[in-house]
Design a protein that fits this description.
There is one protein chain. This protein is of the alpha/beta class. It contains 11 helices and 9 strands. It has 2 domains: about 40 residues; about 240 residues, 3-Layer(aba) Sandwich (Glycerol-3-phosphate (1)-acyltransferase). Helices cover about 50% and strands about 15% of the residues. It is elongated, with a radius of gyration of 28 Å. The structure holds tetradecanoyl-COA and [(2R)-2-oxidanyl-3-phosphonooxy-propyl] (Z)-octadec-9-enoate (UBL). Its EC number is 2.3.1.51.
């Protein structure tokens, strides 16, 4: 007769022990019944937070991926709301409203100085430094009403975000075709005056995280001179304390956005553009260096 396996052991266990062991036993049995996919999910759920806390680079990639993914998702909500009005600069308010909370998600404190410099009723051209796609947060914090950014054409093809930008009247330029870009900006000068629109330009023309300002391209200044409207410089302080693409660093932190006094262009012609661009860049560089030398949270007053 074949020997029974563990008969005595089971027989010898008190009913209490059996009761106590059964949840554990059922958990073990349950675990063994998990499919490969379920196992992978469990491993991911355990590994993800560990890796996230342990690896600075992993955290950086996750935060950037979520940033882009979240914007693409928010755009899905924004599109039908914007579509009601059609392509309209007023839709920029919808995008602004949608994006304002992101600074809280990322623990980025934004301090704004110089609000009074935006107290101009007429159209104007805002020029600001461009460190990263995170500039969107500072931009949305202070975006004046009826103000649209000039963006590279590639952004128009960025899925839902591209469509939302188009609906909000973002002006797209083809950086590979100077003549096309110039004619779009010349058209923008007319639209600004006819439709009371403000335009936001990143005169560096590309993202720059070098800790200084690149030489300025002159399109924004030609635009302001053509429309005879003021240029209002905006400087966002360096992100280096909380964000660095090279080091794959992305923590929480503070950014100061300074709106500088407007520079008038009445009476200027295209011959004055190089001098105007240099003067504005000088003002911005000075403000940027000053802000960079301040310790976070210890800046001078005038905070709004
Ligand atoms: C919920 C969903 C939300 C989604 C997110 C929403 C937010 C989206 C936010 C998006 C944010 C996205 C942010 C972004 O995407 S940033 C990237 C795109 N933006 C820019 O590039 C803007 C800055 N660029 C310029 O201003 C350039 O000058 C342009 C592009 C115009 C030409 O550049 P290019 O490199 O091809 O040529 P050049 O600069 O050597 O110029 C050549 C000559 O032409 C002269 N010239 C120039 N312009 C004019 C003019 N208007 N009238 C007459 N002349 C003009 C100029 O003085 C020069 O002559 P000279 O001086 O040498 O004699
Ligand atoms: C179905 C297609 C899916 C495409 C997915 C694309 C992923 C992008 C997702 C979301 C877009 C986020 C919007 C961020 C807006 C910030 C724009 C920006 O910072 O552009 C950089 C531009 O100023 C200068 O470009 P370069 O530095 O010259 O390069």
């Amino acid at each position: 007769m074949p020997r029974q396996k563990f008969p005595r052991f089971h027989a010898g266990m008190s009913s209490n022990v059996v009761k106590a062991a059964s949840p554990l036993a059922s958990a073990v049995t349950g675990a063994m019944e998990l499919s490969v996919a379920q196992w992978l999910l469990v491993v991911c759920l355990v590994a993800f937070p560990l890796l996230y806390e342990w690896s600075v680079s992993f955290k950086y990639f996750c935060k950037m991926a979520f940033y882009n993914g979240w914007i693409l998702t928010l755009a899905i909500l924004a599109i039908p709301i914007c579509a009601v009005r059609g392509r309209n600069v007023e839709n920029m308010k919808v995008l602004q409203f949608m994006l304002l909370h992101i600074k809280y998600l990322y623990g980025i404190k934004i301090e704004v100085r110089g609000w009074e410099n935006f107290n101009i009723k007429e159209p104007y051209v805002v020029v600001s430094n461009h460190q990263s796609s995170l500039d969107l947060l500072g931009m949305m914090e202070i975006l004046p009403s009826r103000c649209v950014p000039i963006a590279k054409r590639e952004l128009m093809y960025a899925g839902t975000a591209g469509l939302a930008c188009w609906l909000a009247g973002v002006i797209f330029i083809n950086r590979k075709k100077t003549d096309d870009a110039i004619s779009v900006m010349t058209e923008a000068a007319e639209t600004m005056l006819k439709e009371d629109v403000r335009v936001w330009v990143f005169p560096e023309g590309t993202r720059n995280h070098s800790g200084s300002l690149l030489p300025f391209k002159r399109g924004a200044f030609h635009l302001a001179v053509k429309a005879q409207v003021p240029v209002i410089p905006v400087v966002m302080s360096s992100y280096k304390d909380f964000y660095c693409k090279k080091e794959r660093k992305f923590t929480t932190g503070k950014c100061t956005v300074r709106i500088l006094p407007g520079v008038h262009t009445k009476g200027l012609s295209s011959d004055d553009v190089p001098e105007l661009a240099d003067r504005v860049r000088g003002m911005m560089l000075e403000a940027f260096s000053q802000m960079s030398s301040e310790r976070p949270g210890k800046g001078p007053g005038g905070v709004h």
